[in-house]
From TrEMBL:
<feature type="domain" description="Menorin-like">
    <location>
        <begin position="127"/>
        <end position="360"/>
    </location>
</feature>
<dbReference type="Pfam" id="PF10223">
    <property type="entry name" value="Menorin_N"/>
</dbReference>
<dbReference type="GO" id="GO:0005615">
    <property type="term" value="C:extracellular space"/>
</dbReference>
<comment type="similarity">
    <text>Belongs to the menorin family.</text>
</comment>
<protein>
    <recommendedName>
        <fullName>Menorin-like domain-containing protein</fullName>
    </recommendedName>
</protein>
<dbReference type="InterPro" id="IPR019356">
    <property type="entry name" value="Menorin_dom"/>
</dbReference>
């Protein structure tokens, strides 16, 4: 299933043609090519407009063919006094595309999780704090516990076994673990039986392509939100190796242009020192990378570092309504319920999710009046 994206498209003639220069679509369904075969693809003229095959992450490409019918929903006639009937272009055109908000429709991997769970009557409001998380559901016992729980989103870690076992199949484990009783293939076979959203976390590029192949085989059965996560930039006190951003994004989007990305920073937290938050340079570099994407992006941010970074993170969220935050907690981090309430008041509640540990999770939900199960398995 391909997503429909709201797009503002400007057509510019490469060669002079008639007496008009631009067409504006306020809403343009863009069919994303799942596997572009060249850096500058040729679009068949037979495609019904305004459905256009768009190369993943490409801003400019060419439409060629004897005749391209263009049927815009909003046609600006400042340069053309002709009627707004379909215009047939007989020359090659250069099409510049700037994608706007692009959360996918029902059943797509990029569907907003609040809309998905609200539509399925699993939450009562579009409020990120209502989403329950099951974290590190890697081994079979952890996975089974998560599947039986009230969690809406199930998160797990994917890597390749270092000993060559499982014939190079991706397994479900979090470093420093290097083995597991659960492969990605087995994990997906069980999770697909549920209605839970999926978040897969990659600590390196090694497992990404192989994992995308398994996901591709399950695509038709996974009509729910799917988040793909990696830390692509160094962040506050970050010492872990980052995942190469371009290679990661290119690999994932070549398979699944309608996925939701979860893109973060490597971070650390030290109890005996002042911990700086996310700097301006960090959030600006992230926006620079993500501005080229068309998918929804959530930024996982460490709870103990958010309060001192609110200005920077709010700036980041204002750059696109495709963006959101997912607040997470380190095992030994020190932070308070008051910190979470401050975050809650500072940001739009539809743009912040809380994957946090106990007892703060329960105290936070109680303080904001959200009833029901409180868990972060």
């Amino acid at each position: 299933m391909y997503s429909s994206f709201a797009a503002r498209c400007t057509l510019e003639q490469v060669a002079p043609h008639q007496n008009w220069t631009s067409v504006l679509w306020e809403m343009c369904p863009a069919i994303l090519s799942p596997r572009p075969t060249s850096s500058l693809p040729t679009i068949p003229a037979s495609l019904p407009a305004p459905s256009l095959a768009v190369a993943v992450r490409m801003r400019t490409f060419y439409i060629t063919g004897a005749e391209v019918p263009v049927r815009p929903s909003g046609f600006r006639q400042e340069d053309n006094q002709e009627s707004a009937n379909p215009v047939h272009l007989r020359r090659s055109l250069r099409l510049s595309v700037t994608m706007a908000a692009c959360a996918g429709g029902p059943g797509s991997w990029s569907e907003n999780i609040l809309k998905y769970f609200l539509r399925n009557n699993q939450i009562t409001a579009e409020d990120g704090a209502e989403i329950l998380w099951s974290h590190a559901a890697n081994h079979k016992s952890q996975m089974n516990e998560a599947l039986k729980s009230a969690a809406h989103m199930i998160e797990a870690d994917v890597l390749l076994p270092s000993d060559g076992s499982e014939h190079g199949q991706p397994i479900m484990a979090h470093p420093p673990e290097t083995s597991s009783d659960n492969t990605l293939q087995e994990w997906l076979a069980e999770v697909v039986k549920s209605n839970k959203g999926i978040k897969l976390d990659f600590k390196s590029l090694a497992a990404v392509r192989a994992s995308m192949l398994f996901l591709d085989n399950m695509k038709q059965h996974l009509q729910r939100p799917v988040w793909i996560n990696a830390d692509i930039l160094p962040g506050p006190n970050g010492s872990s190796k980052v995942v190469d951003a371009k290679a990661f994004l290119d690999t994932v989007t070549s398979f699944f242009p309608d996925v939701t990305f979860s893109l973060g920073w490597t971070t650390g937290w030290h109890p005996k020192k002042v911990n700086e938050g996310y700097s301006w340079s960090m959030v600006k570099e992230m926006d620079y990378i993500c501005s080229e994407l068309t998918q929804p992006v959530t930024f996982p941010v460490r709870a103990a570092l958010v309060r001192q970074s609110c200005s920077q993170l709010l700036w980041l969220l204002t750059k696109s309504n495709r963006y959101s935050l997912t607040v997470w907690t380190g095992k030994d981090d020190i932070y308070s319920t008051e910190d979470l309430l401050y975050i809650r008041d500072y940001f739009n509640k539809t743009q912040v999710f809380y994957d946090i540990s106990e007892p703060q999770n329960h105290e936070f939900k109680q303080a904001i009046g959200i009833r029901g199960h409180s868990l972060r398995i």
